[in-house]
Amino acid sequence: SHSIIRKLRKEGKLPEEAEIFVSNLSLEDLIALKLEIASKPIGGKLFGIPIWKSVPFIVRDALLKTAISVCKTKTEAASMLGKDIDTLDKLLKKYKTVSFFEESD
Questions:
Q1: CA distance 95 to 56
Q2: Tell me, what's the pLDDT at 104?
Q3: What is the SS3 assignment for 13?
Q4: Most buried one in 14, 17, 55, 94, CB count within 10 A?
Q5: How far is CA 84 from CA 56, 66, 68, 92, in A?
Q6: What pLDDT does 89 receive?
Q7: What is the pTM of this model?
Q8: Is residue 67 within 8 Å of 80, Cβ to Cβ?
Q9: From CA 89, how far away is CA 93, in angstroms rounded?
Q10: Contact 101, 2 (CB under 8 A)
Q11: Cα 104 to Cα 10, 35, 79, 98, distances in angstroms
């Protein structure tokens, strides 16, 4: 069983109080907030990443992590994403989704 919340809490990146604040934000506001926080100290440059072009990949990565986290089986995850199992497996490998949840030493 994978859980983004459990992983981030274990790493000390998500205090319980933060969940309350995050749950009150729309996804658009949360993304905008994260981008502003990341880009403000460096003058809006975002580390040279072409953000407009990168957004589809960032969102797909987030969707895969969410599907694996909230669904009990790969079949459910594939269904949630509107993909078949073979395509899901290829996407999980491409985005290295499963390794995101693995414990690091």
A1: 12
A2: 62
A3: coil
A4: 14
A5: 20, 17, 14, 12
A6: 97
A7: 0.82
A8: yes
A9: 6
A10: yes
A11: 11, 26, 30, 12
Query: Which one-letter amino acid corresponds to residue 11?
Result: E
Residue 82 has pLDDT above 80, yes or no: yes
Cα 45 vs. chain centroid, distance in angstroms? Answer: 22
Side-chain-facing half-sphere of 29: CA atoms under 13 Å: 6
Tokens of 24: 């009150």
Average pLDDT over residues 18-46: 88
User: What is the token pair recorded at 8?
Assistant: 């981030």
For the chain, the 3-state helix, strand and coil shares in percent, each to the nearest 5, are: 75, 0, 25
- Alpha-carbon dihedral sign for residues 94, 99, 100, 105: negative
Question: What CA–CA distance (Å, rounded) separates 22 from 28?
Answer: 11
Contacts of 45 (CB under 8 A, 6+ apart): 39
Cα distances (angstroms) measured from residue 22 to each of 6, 45, 51, 84, 93: 15, 25, 22, 31, 29
